[in-house]
Specification:
The protein has 13 helices and eight strands. It is of the alpha/beta class. The longest helix is centred in the N-terminal third of the chain and has 15 residues.
């Protein structure tokens, strides 16, 4: 179910800070029309940390209703509170989500045993598939391959978005888990290397901007045209780099605003890009013919 180019979609707000539902629908249609294989709302890129509980549930419900089963919706439902993650995941299941993306608990820094218990309790509370999300740079904790292997034995833990940046760690996960878990790239810079070791796709930031090119990269690899996939990976490098001129999702939302797709409002404590980085972003987007 979870493969190909999947987008960690932004959450658009109006200039007054309210959710922009019309813009959200346009973004989702843009993604589906350009080959995206799954919509992933309420992740890091979707500013989930600053959504109220009601907004979080509304964004997921909107995504499900707009998509209308054309592609899977994998709802971000993680929290650093296990009970809260369970509540969000149950809510996503009730709304009709096809799966849940669950981040490792941030700030708490649990042990590996604590991580195992956290994800086990969430998985046991629902019937939908769970995608683990490991991003140590954001959370301060790295979920080790041995822990992933234990969790992969649970029936509805089916995939992992791996954003540690370590191909060694990802290879060990596949070595330990075999076909019990699907490996998904969590970093746009290394989509092709992750596919080459056995990954099945990516949950992408840059796909917000260029869904057709990210989908083309994965599709080229899947059809055996590794040279074309490598060409696209290299061509995307500068744009991937631009998405991290400042903290994600500041550049990607700014880019979408420059492209005329959203307002670009960022919830505090995120703030507008610096003048220097904004100029760099405009230059890069121009080089790619996006503005």
């Amino acid at each position: 179910m979870f493969k190909g180019s999947m987008v960690a979609i932004v959450t658009p707000f109006k200039a007054n800070g309210e959710l922009d539902e019309a813009a959200y629908e346009r973004l989702i249609e843009f993604q589906i029309a350009n080959g995206t294989k799954a919509i992933v709302p309420c992740g890091t890129t979707g500013e989930s940390a600053t959504l109220s509980h009601a907004e979080h549930e509304r964004v997921i419900e909107l995504a499900i209703n707009i998509v209308g089963k054309r592609v899977p919706v994998v709802a971000g439902t993680g929290s650093n509170c296990t009970a809260e993650a369970i509540r969000l995941t149950k809510s996503a299941q009730a709304a009709g989500a096809d799966g849940a993306l669950v981040i490792t608990p941030y700030y708490n820094k649990p042990t590996q045993a604590g991580l195992y218990e956290h994800f086990t309790q969430i998985a046991n509370s629902v019937d939908i598939p769970i995608v683990l999300y490991n991003v140590p740079g954001r959370t301060g904790i790295n979920m080790l391959p041995a822990t992933v292997a234990r969790l992969a034995l649970l029936d509805n833990i089916v995939a992992i978005k791996e954003a540690s940046g370590s191909l060694t760690q990802m290879t060990e996960i596949l070595s330990r888990c075999g076909d019990k878990i699907t490996l998904l790239a969590g970093d746009d810079f290394i989509i092709l290397p992750v596919l080459a070791i056995g990954g099945k796709g990516v949950i992408s930031v840059v796909a917000n901007i260029v869904p057709d090119r990210v989908a083309g990269l994965v599709n080229a690899f899947e059809t055996g045209d590794v040279a074309a996939a490598a060409k696209l990976q290299i061509e995307l490098f500068s744009l991937c780099e631009a998405m991290f001129y400042e903290t994600n999702p500041i550049p990607v939302k700014t880019g979408l605003s420059l492209m005329g797709k959203i307002d670009g409002y960022l919830r505090p404590p995120l703030c507008p890009m610096s003048a220097d980085n904004l100029a760099k972003l405009k230059n890069t987007l121009g080089q790619y013919g996006l503005i």
